Amino acid sequence: MTSHEAAPGDPRQLPGGAPARAAARVTSRDVARAAGVSQAAVSLVLGDKWRGRVSPGKAEVVRTVARELGYRPNLAARSLRTGRTRTALLVVPALTTEFFARVYTGAARLAADHDFGVVLYPSPEGTGVAPSPFDSASAALDGVIASSMAADALAALRGAGLPLVMLDSDPDDPTAAAAVNLDIADGARQLATHLTGLGHRRITHLAADVESWTFAVRARALADVLADVPGAVLRRQPSALGVDAGRRAAHAALTAPGPRPTALLCDDDIIAAGACKAARRLGLRIPQDVSVTGFDDLALAVAVEPELTTVRLPAEEFGEAGMRALMAVLDGAPVEAATLPVALVPRGSTAPPPDAGHNAARPGG
Amino acid sequence: MTSHEAAPGDPRQLPGGAPARAAARVTSRDVARAAGVSQAAVSLVLGDKWRGRVSPGKAEVVRTVARELGYRPNLAARSLRTGRTRTALLVVPALTTEFFARVYTGAARLAADHDFGVVLYPSPEGTGVAPSPFDSASAALDGVIASSMAADALAALRGAGLPLVMLDSDPDDPTAAAAVNLDIADGARQLATHLTGLGHRRITHLAADVESWTFAVRARALADVLADVPGAVLRRQPSALGVDAGRRAAHAALTAPGPRPTALLCDDDIIAAGACKAARRLGLRIPQDVSVTGFDDLALAVAVEPELTTVRLPAEEFGEAGMRALMAVLDGAPVEAATLPVALVPRGSTAPPPDAGHNAARPGG
DNA sequence: GCCAGGGCGTGTTACGTATAACTTGTGGCG
DNA sequence: CGCCACAAGTTATACGTAACACGCCCTGGC
């Protein structure tokens, strides 16, 4: 019954020796001894730098022995020697957002294919983690992928001198080594065109009350489209993020003085879900009395009734592209500023407005 | 007078030297030189092991100089020396699940307070990451926190000999160093009692089609409660995870031969959202015609109409408790097997059954 | 007057790896 | 025949840190 009682058989008594780990690690020297070569040869072979330095036969022996012994390189030692960690930091506004969880997933998947790791740094507003990523992150970092939404963390990042890839940043602010963007403007244009095509003219934009390029560009694109539609009236109702905030904002929009909007164009699916609740509580049917649109195409979009017309963002691909760009920067390769396409997903929450017969044909006015 | 006065800012040209990094790192030796002490003294002071070895005055000087120079210890070197990485691995079935994102957040927050880091390993089914966490994770690990839902990754973990804390594991399977559980059984009992208290007798359990203790225990607890209620009939309808799977399962349950169930008790909120859609498409009102309950209390629970009666799981605290247990194990401290309480959250998706007047014992309901 | 002992520090070493620099044997070629 | 290029290795070294093993000085007790 000696479960907890670790036998204290003297591990190492060498002066300055490190405390012995539970399982004696297999080192490259062990492999070298077993294979009858020097440690340097092992390093060369396993590092795939043996061409012209080690004979193919011995290289094969080394690989075989390493596998049989279950050798795993000590990453701390490697990092100490090379100065690289093969670890990237992903800075997101809040992990509990499904969108950023998917961005992480994509980045981590691609990273794993290249023996890279990804650690997360949700910025303070979301989670209360310490303000400086470099105090709290236990890993040393080769580079950073940062969402432009994580505004408060960016200041600390800029000063750190780390290779930086920005996700969805303002193209006019080229402080980053590279940038990857979603074609948010196109998504917003498609939504606006979809609604005006159905006949909507009085549209209220439930605008996320967050200072970020990704939201600013929506507003601009909407205004651009509606400016070309005779008789279209675009109003703006600010909303915080979250279901309840969306509900309150939609209530305000739907009860504002003047003619009621026939469509609520929401900055994300979560706000849209709240908007649906507000409409229903006012006795309005969706989409017969009022159309509602979202943005992002989260799982939530098909969980509500009716399912949301929204814009699908390729979140995993977004994370992958960010990671790819970072690895390119680290390799010193030229970085391609990528813009990923998005797609309108029409569902049940949009329909022609109730007064479509009168309004759609009316020219101007 | 030190004879080895290296030219400052001069990249090393010594044989075997590591490639110069872009930003010249400040090392403990730099701090030592600037503070007029030895490197050993710096290590002692900053490691808070200086009592009786360094005078308080010099210790203060060292701390000040370190701060002024912006010294940050090289974590790779420290790990190489100590054999510890201060990094834990959190194994979850799928990060895109809001529940596990919150678990991660809690674990990471507590970890940061103790200079620990947390890296994620979403198991393959969720994300397609490589099957072995130790091939893909770029960080060496001190220990693992694993959800019992990540069943396929557990086999690899057991063999690794790493300290392991299990989240929501079967208490009868004590292979882990420590275990932290949610009181799932109590939550299920509260739900069942809530429904029978409202008068429901024909209840169908939309049971997640996943082999995991957390789901198995729900079924057992429900059966226990309903066995004590005269006339209660509990049926079981398996369902995969996801909104659409829940919708299909609920459709099957509501159109099965025999009297229709008056309540659908779903294994999580997402299945419940699907169940609501199925009911509505069959022309049934919620909760007047059929009650629906969820589990987890995700953001989704209040995004749907009506809002879901569900069981709130303290996800962040769960992650915190797991991390706390792991750190205790690493310290060799005794581990307290924690069980965290859960709470029923009654909302709009439950009400007395339509035939409550006939069926329930209480008059005038 | 001398030694014990504690306070205050420094010198040195090893962690495991990657790679520059060196060594040795062999064949080709002027 | 002498020399060089090249293959096939090995040796040595440094990355930055933590901590062991000593030294030195001062104080106090006998």
UniProtKB/TrEMBL annotation, chains A, B:
UniProt keyword list: DNA-binding, Transcription, Transcription regulation
Alphabetized InterPro entries for the sequence: HTH_LacI, LacI/GalR-like_sensor, Lambda_DNA-bd_dom_sf, Peripla_BP_I
GO MF assignments: DNA binding
Domain HTH lacI-type residues, every copy: 26-82
Residue numbers spanned by region Disordered: 1-22, 346-365
Signal peptide annotation: none
Pfam families: LacI (PF00356), Peripla_BP_3 (PF13377)
Protein name from the UniProt record: LacI family DNA-binding transcriptional regulator
Organism of origin: Streptomyces lunalinharesii
